What we know:
The structure is a single chain. By secondary structure, the protein is mostly helical. It has a single domain (3-221), classed as DhaL domain (Serine Threonine Protein Phosphatase 5, Tetratricopeptide repeat, Alpha Horseshoe). It has nine helices and two strands. A two-stranded antiparallel sheet has the order 1-2. Helix 7 (134-149) crosses helix 9 (195-221). The longest helix is centred in the C-terminal third of the chain and has 27 residues, at 195-221. It is globular.
Amino acid sequence: MTRIAAEQFVEILRIVSARIDEAREHLAELDGAIGDADHGRTMSEGFAAVVRDAHEAARRGAGAAELLPIAARSFLNAVGATAGPLYAGGFAEAGRRLAGRAALADADLLVLLAGLGEGIARRGRAVPGDKTMMDAYGPAIRAASAAEADGAGVGEALRAAARAAAEGREATRTMIASKGRAARLGTRSLGHVDPGAASAAVVVDALREGYEAVLARRRTDR
């Protein structure tokens, strides 16, 4: 079992932030079609703030799980748009589920994913089918849970989650938005990928990448 210390968890968050930043312009284009084109900027700024504050907290000796409520506050303070309260709720729920852990077990990343998605769902009152980020997080959580129940390792479960999130993202093309600004478009939202689902798919795949990077570094250090 891999133990993920606070510094390693920060590196996972740094990979998530980097992948979101790389997708920034694409997310803005998606949002421009059915929203106000700010989703790429807000997600990039939110995760940059998370990494900055988590790094500082880890340097001061905070445990890995303690970084999650810090991430919640950081994202909310950095992002005033809709994504701010949603991701704050997600990080806060993940923090509650993992409270007290100075280091995370590898399987705790699946707990984190479930808490993040379910905290977002509760705050946004959204479910898969509403054409929101839950159309990526919902399938990802279910796929990870099913893989784990079948005896898959954490890496395989995260890969299954990433595939399901990508499929969920693409499925939003066929949906009519019922939440957020896009809901005002009605049937005109058909044919467009939801930007929140797109960014969620990036986050899930980046968690997979970050975990694999932790494993690779451990093998190198042996």
